[in-house]
Request: fold
Amino acid sequence: MEIVFQIFDGAVNVVSFLFNYDYSGVIFGLKIAAVPISILLVYGIVYSVTGTGRVLRALHIGEAPKSVPFEKPKNTEDWQKIMERGRSADENERKLAIIAADTLIEKILALSGYAGENLGERLKKIERGDLDSLDDIWKAHLVRNRIAHEAEYKLSSNDAIEALSRFERALKELEYI
Reply:
Protein backbone atom coordinates (compact mmCIF):
# COMPACT_ATOMS: atom_id res chain seq x y z
CA MET A 1 0.00 0.00 0.00
CA GLU A 2 2.87 2.27 0.74
CA ILE A 3 4.04 1.91 -2.86
CA VAL A 4 0.67 3.18 -4.09
CA PHE A 5 1.01 6.26 -1.87
CA GLN A 6 4.53 6.89 -3.12
CA ILE A 7 3.36 6.65 -6.77
CA PHE A 8 0.43 8.96 -5.99
CA ASP A 9 2.72 11.42 -4.18
CA GLY A 10 5.17 11.32 -7.11
CA ALA A 11 2.34 12.00 -9.59
CA VAL A 12 1.12 14.95 -7.49
CA ASN A 13 4.66 16.35 -7.39
CA VAL A 14 5.01 16.04 -11.21
CA VAL A 15 1.65 17.75 -11.79
CA SER A 16 2.56 20.47 -9.30
CA PHE A 17 5.91 20.98 -11.02
CA LEU A 18 4.28 21.23 -14.46
CA PHE A 19 1.74 23.80 -13.25
CA ASN A 20 4.25 25.91 -11.36
CA TYR A 21 7.18 25.84 -13.83
CA ASP A 22 8.17 29.12 -15.54
CA TYR A 23 7.67 28.36 -19.23
CA SER A 24 8.59 31.85 -20.52
CA GLY A 25 12.05 30.73 -21.66
CA VAL A 26 10.73 27.57 -23.31
CA ILE A 27 7.92 29.43 -25.13
CA PHE A 28 10.41 31.98 -26.48
CA GLY A 29 12.59 29.15 -27.77
CA LEU A 30 9.56 27.45 -29.37
CA LYS A 31 8.58 30.71 -31.09
CA ILE A 32 12.08 31.04 -32.53
CA ALA A 33 12.05 27.40 -33.71
CA ALA A 34 8.52 27.76 -35.19
CA VAL A 35 9.60 30.38 -37.75
CA PRO A 36 12.05 28.22 -39.77
CA ILE A 37 9.80 25.18 -39.38
CA SER A 38 6.83 27.16 -40.76
CA ILE A 39 8.93 28.45 -43.66
CA LEU A 40 9.98 24.88 -44.51
CA LEU A 41 6.39 23.64 -44.35
CA VAL A 42 5.08 26.46 -46.59
CA TYR A 43 7.88 25.73 -49.07
CA GLY A 44 6.90 22.05 -49.00
CA ILE A 45 3.27 22.90 -49.73
CA VAL A 46 4.20 25.17 -52.66
CA TYR A 47 6.63 22.57 -54.01
CA SER A 48 3.98 19.83 -53.76
CA VAL A 49 1.29 21.88 -55.47
CA THR A 50 3.53 22.91 -58.37
CA GLY A 51 4.89 19.37 -58.68
CA THR A 52 1.38 17.95 -58.78
CA GLY A 53 0.46 20.46 -61.49
CA ARG A 54 3.45 19.38 -63.58
CA VAL A 55 2.56 15.71 -63.18
CA LEU A 56 -1.09 16.32 -64.10
CA ARG A 57 -0.09 18.32 -67.17
CA ALA A 58 2.32 15.57 -68.17
CA LEU A 59 -0.44 13.00 -67.84
CA HIS A 60 -3.05 15.33 -69.41
CA ILE A 61 -5.19 14.98 -66.31
CA GLY A 62 -7.02 17.96 -64.97
CA GLU A 63 -7.62 19.46 -68.39
CA ALA A 64 -11.20 19.74 -69.50
CA PRO A 65 -11.80 17.39 -72.41
CA LYS A 66 -12.39 19.19 -75.65
CA SER A 67 -15.90 18.70 -76.93
CA VAL A 68 -14.76 17.97 -80.47
CA PRO A 69 -11.18 17.02 -81.34
CA PHE A 70 -10.96 18.95 -84.62
CA GLU A 71 -8.90 21.85 -85.87
CA LYS A 72 -11.00 24.98 -86.36
CA PRO A 73 -9.37 26.34 -89.56
CA LYS A 74 -9.89 23.04 -91.37
CA ASN A 75 -13.39 22.75 -89.94
CA THR A 76 -14.30 26.21 -91.18
CA GLU A 77 -13.00 25.39 -94.66
CA ASP A 78 -14.96 22.13 -94.76
CA TRP A 79 -18.12 23.88 -93.61
CA GLN A 80 -17.67 26.61 -96.24
CA LYS A 81 -17.51 23.91 -98.94
CA ILE A 82 -20.78 22.44 -97.68
CA MET A 83 -22.37 25.92 -97.65
CA GLU A 84 -21.20 26.57 -101.24
CA ARG A 85 -22.87 23.32 -102.33
CA GLY A 86 -25.99 24.39 -100.47
CA ARG A 87 -26.16 27.67 -102.41
CA SER A 88 -25.78 25.90 -105.73
CA ALA A 89 -28.38 26.32 -108.45
CA ASP A 90 -28.35 22.54 -108.90
CA GLU A 91 -30.93 20.89 -106.63
CA ASN A 92 -28.88 17.69 -106.36
CA GLU A 93 -25.89 19.66 -105.05
CA ARG A 94 -28.14 21.29 -102.43
CA LYS A 95 -29.42 17.86 -101.39
CA LEU A 96 -25.88 16.53 -101.10
CA ALA A 97 -24.94 19.54 -98.95
CA ILE A 98 -27.83 18.81 -96.55
CA ILE A 99 -26.83 15.15 -96.34
CA ALA A 100 -23.17 16.11 -95.73
CA ALA A 101 -24.14 18.55 -92.97
CA ASP A 102 -26.41 15.95 -91.36
CA THR A 103 -23.61 13.36 -91.46
CA LEU A 104 -21.19 15.88 -89.97
CA ILE A 105 -23.52 16.64 -87.05
CA GLU A 106 -24.02 12.92 -86.49
CA LYS A 107 -20.25 12.32 -86.30
CA ILE A 108 -19.72 15.25 -83.93
CA LEU A 109 -22.45 14.07 -81.58
CA ALA A 110 -21.00 10.54 -81.65
CA LEU A 111 -17.54 11.91 -80.80
CA SER A 112 -19.12 13.97 -78.02
CA GLY A 113 -20.36 10.78 -76.41
CA TYR A 114 -24.02 10.72 -77.43
CA ALA A 115 -25.05 7.10 -78.01
CA GLY A 116 -27.28 5.82 -80.78
CA GLU A 117 -27.25 4.04 -84.11
CA ASN A 118 -28.01 7.18 -86.11
CA LEU A 119 -28.60 10.89 -85.70
CA GLY A 120 -32.28 10.46 -84.89
CA GLU A 121 -31.51 8.10 -81.99
CA ARG A 122 -28.78 10.39 -80.70
CA LEU A 123 -31.07 13.40 -80.81
CA LYS A 124 -33.74 11.54 -78.84
CA LYS A 125 -31.24 10.95 -76.02
CA ILE A 126 -30.17 14.59 -75.74
CA GLU A 127 -31.97 16.64 -73.11
CA ARG A 128 -33.16 20.10 -74.14
CA GLY A 129 -30.96 21.78 -71.53
CA ASP A 130 -27.84 20.08 -72.86
CA LEU A 131 -28.05 21.53 -76.36
CA ASP A 132 -29.77 24.84 -77.12
CA SER A 133 -29.83 24.12 -80.86
CA LEU A 134 -31.55 20.75 -80.46
CA ASP A 135 -34.73 21.94 -82.20
CA ASP A 136 -32.68 23.39 -85.07
CA ILE A 137 -30.92 20.06 -85.59
CA TRP A 138 -34.24 18.20 -85.52
CA LYS A 139 -35.81 20.50 -88.13
CA ALA A 140 -32.78 20.30 -90.41
CA HIS A 141 -32.60 16.52 -89.92
CA LEU A 142 -36.23 16.22 -91.01
CA VAL A 143 -35.30 17.95 -94.28
CA ARG A 144 -32.50 15.41 -94.71
CA ASN A 145 -34.98 12.57 -94.06
CA ARG A 146 -37.32 13.90 -96.71
CA ILE A 147 -34.40 14.01 -99.17
CA ALA A 148 -33.40 10.44 -98.29
CA HIS A 149 -36.88 8.88 -98.18
CA GLU A 150 -39.06 10.83 -100.60
CA ALA A 151 -37.87 10.36 -104.17
CA GLU A 152 -40.07 13.19 -105.47
CA TYR A 153 -39.08 15.72 -102.79
CA LYS A 154 -38.10 19.07 -104.31
CA LEU A 155 -35.58 21.01 -102.23
CA SER A 156 -35.86 24.71 -102.85
CA SER A 157 -32.89 27.00 -102.53
CA ASN A 158 -34.52 28.76 -99.54
CA ASP A 159 -35.23 25.47 -97.75
CA ALA A 160 -31.63 24.36 -98.28
CA ILE A 161 -30.22 27.62 -96.91
CA GLU A 162 -32.59 27.49 -93.92
CA ALA A 163 -31.64 23.88 -93.10
CA LEU A 164 -27.93 24.63 -93.45
CA SER A 165 -28.32 27.69 -91.22
CA ARG A 166 -29.88 25.47 -88.57
CA PHE A 167 -27.00 23.03 -88.86
CA GLU A 168 -24.56 25.95 -88.68
CA ARG A 169 -26.06 27.19 -85.38
CA ALA A 170 -25.59 23.72 -83.93
CA LEU A 171 -22.02 23.47 -85.23
CA LYS A 172 -21.19 26.80 -83.60
CA GLU A 173 -22.73 25.69 -80.31
CA LEU A 174 -20.77 22.44 -80.48
CA GLU A 175 -17.65 24.56 -81.15
CA TYR A 176 -16.93 22.82 -84.43
CA ILE A 177 -16.76 26.10 -86.35
About this structure: Helices lie at 2-20, 24-59, 72-86, 91-111, 119-125, 134-149, 157-173. Residues 24-59 form the longest helix (36 residues). The chain has a mean pLDDT of 88. The chain has two domains: 2-59, 72-173.
